[in-house]
């Protein structure tokens, strides 16, 4: 196995661990609800069916967002940016006190057709969410050349860790620092460089931070 093969394998291992970690809670809740239903039958009541329903919705929301971030959906031109925003808002409804504000459809036009834009959007929104454990506000803006994510409610310690991982281009420089909780920012950085998005991440100032990306041109 070559050095590059080893790096790729480690990334896959950690990313798989993150996906399993994020999904185990809602899937376990579904399983617990089904077990209660089997045990109590008709006496289970609405509480059990509500538990199963909400856990199933939460699982579907997380899977949809991960599909955009890591799967083929992130590079599917038939999927539009507003679908990523809708998926993320659905995810927030069941998992967070954070809010997302995006431009109206007409002002989203500069995003259309950019390389892997759905993947990039899903990845940076996930970073914002993961660095705002107590909730907050996320505001997205764009113009003809750039994409900006402004956040209020950012945890400085989590942000500094994520920022460091995004900006590192070599996994060997982060030996021992990557785990299932920090692999996502590192993979996001790989995607940004792969698709030629030039990223600038600010420091935290009284809970506020921002990410700015110069977007590559749309393919001819």
Describe this entry's structure for a reader.
This protein is an alpha+beta fold. The protein has helices at residues 3-40, 45-70, 81-95, 117-130, 156-167, 183-194, and strands at residues 99-101, 137-142, 146-152, 198-201, 208-214. The protein has one domain: Heat Shock Protein 90, CATH 3.30.565. A five-stranded mixed sheet has the order 1-2-3-5-4, with helices on one face. The longest helix is centred in the N-terminal third of the chain and has 38 residues, at 3-40.
On the 0-100 scale, what is the average pLDDT? 88
CATH architecture designation: 2-Layer Sandwich
Helices and strands: which structural class?
alpha+beta
Low-confidence parts lasting 5 or more residues at pLDDT below 50? 1-6
Q: How would you describe the shape?
A: globular
Report helical residue fraction: 40-55%
Backbone CA Rg: 19 Å
Topology:
Layout: H1 3-40, H2 45-70, H3 81-95, E1 99-101, H4 117-130, E2 137-142, E3 146-152, H5 156-167, H6 183-194, E4 198-201, E5 208-214
Parallel strand pairs: 1-2
Antiparallel strand pairs: 2-3, 3-5, 4-5
Helix pairs in contact: 1-2, 2-3, 2-4, 3-4, 4-6, 5-6
Keywords:
220 residues; single chain; alpha+beta; Heat Shock Protein 90; five-stranded mixed β-sheet; globular; disordered N terminus
Write a brief structural summary.
The protein has 220 residues and is α+β, with helices and mostly antiparallel strands.
